[in-house]
Specification:
The chain has about 140 residues and is of the alpha+beta class. Helices cover about 35% and strands about 15% of the residues. It is built from five helices and eight strands.
Length: about 140
């Protein structure tokens, strides 16, 4: 059986025991759970998190980091508890607020008839031209 080992040679029979050791021992209170460095004080640990935040892909409601931006975005779109506009990187309190944002924002190319947001104006216009029942003057929009 492989043992987890602490820097000073203290062995643990299971990684879970090592994690409990980290949580219980005062000297490990200011250890970053991501890079595992010890920062000695709460202020320095918070500063580390602030500096590292620009490269973190963190969901505050789940208190979870994701390996990449695309994994975080996949989480946002798959979760019914998140009302996130991926295009604008904005979060909303409800699905209704998100839909209002999409319908009224000039960064979105929304078709009201189909209730669909398109990636670009060109794709929306192509949709209008090729779809049955879309009698829209593209020049007037």
């Amino acid at each position: 059986m492989r043992q987890a080992q602490y820097d000073n040679g203290e062995d643990f029979d299971h990684p879970g025991l090592l994690l409990r050791h980290y949580e219980k021992e005062q000297r490990h209170r200011f250890r970053c759970r991501h890079c595992r460095n010890n920062f000695g004080s709460d202020i320095r640990l918070r500063q580390h998190y602030t500096e590292a935040n620009s490269v973190r892909h963190y969901c505050p409601s789940r208190n979870k980091d994701y390996a990449s931006r695309s994994e975080l975005l996949n989480h946002y779109t798959a979760s019914s508890s998140h009302h996130c506009c991926i295009k604008c990187d904005e979060h909303f309190g409800s699905e209704e607020e998100l839909l209002t944002h999409v319908k009224n924002n000039s960064n979105h190319f929304y078709c009201q008839k189909c209730d669909t947001d398109f990636y670009s104006e060109y794709i929306r216009q192509t949709h209008w031209e090729l779809s049955d029942g879309h009698y829209i003057c593209i020049s007037c929009n």
